[in-house]
Design goal:
By secondary structure, this protein is of the alpha/beta class. About 55% of the residues lie in helices and about 10% in strands. It contains 24 helices and 12 strands.
Length: about 600
């Protein structure tokens, strides 16, 4: 093999192995929003696993290196073991470093994990031979003639790249990818529609970790050695820069970014001739260029060379507007006859009549303090099934905090919350949403990078496409259901007169449109009780009227609503019962007409 051939083989193998790792990190960071600065640790785990499962006992080769296990597994099995070990470690990192941490804290926690792992491996000689690392790692193609082995290795790496890409698309290009992007855009909004964010993050860490393990195994098999110096945390920055340059969240952009950053720049400069006056410059030149690229792209083109949006249609099974012809012509005008496509089945009519006087929500003696300030002080109230109940009071009365306690986004100091006959006081927020207790927020929260239609479709409960089986089996398994969900979402857009915004990115909507979108997204979950936190704030009179009409129609179909609202005209029009809160306590309860006549209520809130 000539020098140029060797040069080409090294760059191509580097490109293929780095690409697998970059795809895995893009799944975690670019698609799911997990800032995993410990990613190179998972690559190293794969490399070490491949080494110790193929080298044989450490007593071999003169016993000059010491390591655990020491097996002689077939090479394909060793690569699979590397993937499995890195997947498990990725999931463990997800549990310890990601649960309920802010993104910047997540990044710091995972950076510490990476540095700690490097220090531990370097100091523990008997684990994987300490700082000296492992040598004589077998090449899986060692039986091939040396002159042809390099190109054969290139072919093997690129074949594995194709297999990894086929698996990756199942996670990023379909409805599951839509769910991950929703989680990335707004974690709390995802929790509010019943998505288990922690489980999703751990699953993504495991899948991304498996890709890291495969990358590390292929690198170790090609290089024949591996040491702590090969996986310093700065290597993760090279992969991150490749993602930023190519296009965050875009698998094809990552291909371009990997070719430019870790392959041509970081590795390519190593083949440049040394500068006699400064021999240390060339080895560090790649990192200097990498730093400048990162800063430049973050400032001037944060979406990368190939932005995530506009390069593919993520949802080819989306129903076409023509399918709305099945809806009655007046359905979008008066909100009638929605039960067969908006509201979840609630049993037969006799059961509904029997339950209509029952309380779907009972809140008993809830308290919540913030830094010594008592926001909620023993509030007790209930919501009747099939009613619209208003929750009003002056600013600072504790209304939104009470709503947060009911929905599980604020932990109660004491007291109980019972929903639909079950005690949900300690239930996580996403589990309450899955049971049918769904909320909106005081400040609208949309999944900004998804379209308006995708914001609604992602809220559908128990979607087959979001299950493990759905990811494995693909469109044939979930395609029909996806079309039905999308059709329902389009009809909902028609009801709220926003069908012309279906393809618009949610982040580009006006404030009032975002507010309407959040209410629609709540309805898409098919809730039993919908908690609306000041839904008319920022809405025009026309949109306020449209929202009110929809709420009344939904109530007629059996939906219960708890409405926090400052606009008393809206409360008067919509609410069957109104609860007044003052200084964290329930002060009065009754119809709006009755409350207006009560002097103590006027003095506390209504006067002026």
């Amino acid at each position: 093999m000539t020098g140029w051939e060797y040069y080409a083989v090294v760059l191509l193998v580097d490109f293929g192995t780095f690409l697998i790792a970059a795809w895995g990190l893009n799944l975690e960071f670019g698609v799911a929003g997990v800032p995993n600065l410990a990613y190179i640790f998972l690559v190293a785990a794969g490399a070490y696993t491949y080494a110790i499962t193929t080298l044989g006992p450490s007593s071999g080769n003169g016993g000059f290196q010491h390591y655990v296990i020491g097996a002689h597994l077939p090479y394909p099995v060793a690569i699979l073991c590397a993937a499995a070990v890195s997947a498990v470690l990725g999931a463990l990192v997800g549990i310890t470093g990601l649960k309920r941490l802010r993104p910047d804290y997540q990044a710091m926690a995972l950076l510490v994990v990476s540095i700690t792992a490097t220090t531990l491996v370097s100091a523990k000689t008997s684990l994987v031979n300490g700082s000296a690392g492992l040598a004589l790692i077998p090449n899986p193609l060692h039986s091939i003639e040396p002159s042809k082995r390099g190109w054969a290795y290139v072919g093997m790496v690129f074949l594995i790249c194709l297999l990894v890409f086929a698996v990756l698309r199942r996670f990023t290009d379909g409805p599951f990818g839509r769910l991950l992007r929703a989680m990335r855009d707004d974690e709390e909004a995802a929790l509010a529609i019943g998505k288990n964010v922690v489980a999703l993050r751990i699953a993504v860490q495991a899948v991304g970790g498996a890709m890291a393990g495969v990358s590390g195994a292929l690198l170790a098999g090609f290089l024949g050695g591996w040491s702590p110096g090969a996986w310093l945390f700065i290597e993760t920055m090279a992969l991150l820069t490749a993602i930023i340059v190519g296009g965050i969240g875009n698998n094809w952009g990552v291909v371009l970014g990997t070719a430019i950053v870790p392959t041509l720049i970081v590795q390519g400069v190593q083949f440049l001739p040394d500068i006699s006056s400064n021999p240390e410059l060339i080895p560090q030149l790649g990192w200097i260029i990498l730093g400048c690229l990162t800063i430049g792209f973050l400032f001037f083109r944060p979406a990368g060379v190939i932005p995530e949006t506009g390069v593919r249609r993520r949802h080819r099974v989306i129903a076409e507007p023509a399918e709305l012809a099945e809806q009655p012509a007046d359905g979008a005008k008066n909100g009638a006859s929605m039960s067969n496509w908006l509201i979840a089945p609630r049993g037969d009519a006799d059961r509904r009549l029997a339950d209509e006087r029952e309380d779907i929500l009972v809140v008993d003696d809830i308290h919540r303090d913030f830094g010594g300030v008592r926001a909620v002080d023993g509030a007790t109230f209930s919501v009747q099934r099939g009613s619209i109940t208003g929750l009003i009071g002056p600013n600072g009365a504790g209304k939104s905090t009470a709503l947060g306690i009911v929905s599980g986004f604020v932990r109660a100091g004491r007291g109980t919350v019972r929903f639909d006959g079950a005690d949900v006081t300690r239930a996580p927020n996403y589990r309450r949403a899955r049971r049918g207790l769904v909320r909106t927020f005081q400040l609208s929260r949309e999944f900004a990078t998804l379209s308006t239609l995708e914001n609604l479709v992602v809220a559908a409960p128990r979607a087959r496409s979001e299950s493990a089986l759905g990811v494995l089996r693909g469109r044939r398994y979930w395609g029909a259901e996806e079309r039905e969900i999308t059709q329902r979402a389009r009809r909902l857009l028609a009801l709220f007169q926003m069908e012309d915004k279906a393809a618009e990115r949610a982040g580009n909507l006006s404030g009032g449109q975002k507010r309407m979108l959040e209410v629609m997204r709540g309805v898409m979950t098919q809730p039993s009780l919908l908690l609306l936190d000041e839904p008319t704030a920022g809405l025009s009179p026309r949109l306020t009227q449209r929202l009110g009409d929809a709420c009344l129609a939904l109530r007629e179909e059996g939906l219960s609503i708890l409405l926090v609202e400052h606009e008393l005209e809206t409360v008067d029009r919509l609410c069957d019962t109104v609860i007044v809160m003052v200084q964290g306590k329930v002060f009065a309860r009754g119809s709006m007409a009755d409350l207006r006549t009560r002097k103590e209520v006027q003095e506390a809130y209504l006067v002026g």
